[in-house]
Amino acid sequence: MTREKQTVLVVDDNPDNITLINGLLRPLYQVKVAINGVKAIAMIKKNPPDIILLDLVMPEMDGYQVCRILKNDVNFWEIPIIFLTAQNDVDAESKGFELGAADYITKPVNSAILLSRVKTHLDLKKASNFLKSQNQYLEKEISRRTGEVALIQEVSIMAMAALAETRDNETGLHLQRTKLYVSELCEKLAHRPGHQRILTREIIDTIVASAPLHDIGKIGIPDAVLLKPGRLTEAEFEIMKTHATIGREAIIKAEQIMDRRETYLKYPKEIVSSHHEKWDGSGYPEGLSGEDIPLAARIVALADAYDAITSERIYKSASTHEQAVTIITEDSGRHFDPAVVAAFLQVHDNFKAIARKYREPGAGVFLME
User: Is 157 inside a domain boundary?
Assistant: First the structure.
């Protein structure tokens, strides 16, 4: 199969030069001709060539102007331009190179130099295009594989959360609601000046995916405490509180198995360990306060609390959305980070919609009115 010839555009107003160059190049390339810069620009926009041989001195639009126009257009700036000039002037050459020209050939044209320079720059362009296409392929492949890894990570997290769920009275709908509440808070906080740098797209996605793991430590709580149909005694509550530490230790062991300190489990570990800490330091397991509590845990703390307030339990009825908003607002600066509460107040209607859509089977709709 015959390979299609590369295209050379010759821009020159001198018929003799055109005849000479055309005779030299035509056996090897497809040659097109423009007798001035205006026509050259029109031809290039219609069908870009592989390389341009551009005379400097022409009427209407000189070579510098043509070069400037092409190099300022992202569609054409990669086309190599070789200036053809009778001027043997260092300043003229410098100006051309500053504008983006690839090379200079002085007139009268030497046939061997012309053929060699054209071939060299076409080969360089071909190599550049190849590398560009390879880089694009690699970028797509990296993106695809990164997506696969992220999916595996999310599936792993959901599998661990589902395992904990089998020992608890909570349902998958609780996990789904909490995950969506966390997403709403993260997206709103990401627009606040103090959180823009922290809550990048990647980190938001990781926090949201990690939210279902918040109570994974309950898998280590005895059934007598975990499944007790009623309020816990003080001693039983102390046992229940250990689920935060149990969950953290489980994730630390997983990281040790991977032999890496910083893994995608960083945010799950923060959430599991600290989502019961309180802004004023009265929470557990470590009594952290303020910004010493990881941001991911402060976000999940509010989301989890909202779901607990608006959900029915054996020992309590579900509160309305409006009651939950009042309780959370009053606890701003005590239980909850004031910035997270402010974000919640901006998106609380979305919380209400999520709670209605993913309510437990048999739950009274009136509770969410």
Answer: no
